[in-house]
Amino acid sequence: MFSSDQTIPCPVCNSKIPFDTKQLLMGIQFSCPNCQASIGLSQESKPIVEETMQKFNELKSDMGKQKNIN
Amino acid sequence: MADTEQSNTNNDTKSFKPDFKSEINIESIISAPLVAASKANVEMLKGQTRAIIDNCFTKVKRNNGPDKQSDPTAKNDTKDEGDNSDSDYIYEPIMINLTLKRTFLHEETNKQGEKITELRESGLTFAVPVICLMPINSLAIDKVNVDFDMEITSVTSWHNEKGIITRQAQLNGKISNSTNSNDNRHYKNKSTSSLRVNINAGQLPLPTGVLTILDLYVKNIQPQSIQPQKPVKP
Known about the structure:
The structure holds two protein chains of two kinds. Chain A is an alpha+beta fold. Chain A is built from two helices and four strands. In chain A, the strands form two sheets. A two-stranded antiparallel ribbon of chain A has the order 1-2. In chain A, strand 1 (6-9) and strand 2 (16-19) form a beta hairpin. The two termini of chain A are 18 Å apart. The mean pLDDT of chain A is 81. Chain B is an alpha+beta fold. Among the domains of chain B are: 20-56 and 137-178 and 194-221, no CATH class; 93-133, no CATH class. Helix content of chain B is 21%, strand content 40%. In chain B, the strands form four sheets. Chain B has a four-stranded antiparallel beta sheet, with helices on one face. In chain B, a hairpin with a 4-residue loop joins strand 1 and strand 2 (13-17). The model of chain B is unreliable at 1-10 and 66-82 (pLDDT under 50). Strand 4 (38-41) of chain A pairs antiparallel with strand 6 of chain B, so a sheet runs across the interface.
């Protein structure tokens, strides 16, 4: 249920900006390959993304446990 | 299905005890693993949908919904629902803020009439739903191999109802084990039967519904050029 190739369209030039959510949470900014605009996660939204990512990771580990049981 | 089926009427649960020694038609043998794989797919998709709804959306009560008492059409459309039915709620996406920084060359003329070019940075904060940042994709069963050996015990055939000469046949048989029968001197009464089901699950493209939701949000953050309004002539 998890994918690694994530992109978000650049609000300036509509090019695809590749990003990684974990690195966004670490404060890394990702640049648009076309216009060099950089996107980052704002500080006030960091707890929300962290919480959601944690829930998805818990779900992933639960699925792994079920797979091992079966 | 020719399997012996025992249903428990108290809790509506059904248990299946396949008797491979009895005669089974070939359609049942092939379809049983496929139906099981299809049900497993549905279960996985249900889990994914529930995870997305629980983690990326908030359930809020509808504020400006139709007034059931004053609006006669709304009253007719509603079924016997309680006060907290699903139609009274909407799912709002959890939004987060992303910051966009861009450097640009700024030219200005100073008091001495000299052109000064400097590098400036502009910033923009825009909101996107958290679902856009979650690394979601779809895992589903994409290949099912059903492998069995069958000993044909009978063939049922019948004429068509309209008297057409076409004859349809149905193979019935027993699932047998896959031992080689080269050694005819020794007969072994094997009580086991083998039906091998090999299932491969792979990553599939996201469901169309999720893609549509993402596409809607993506289009919302696209810049739109606003034309200056022309002054209205009196």
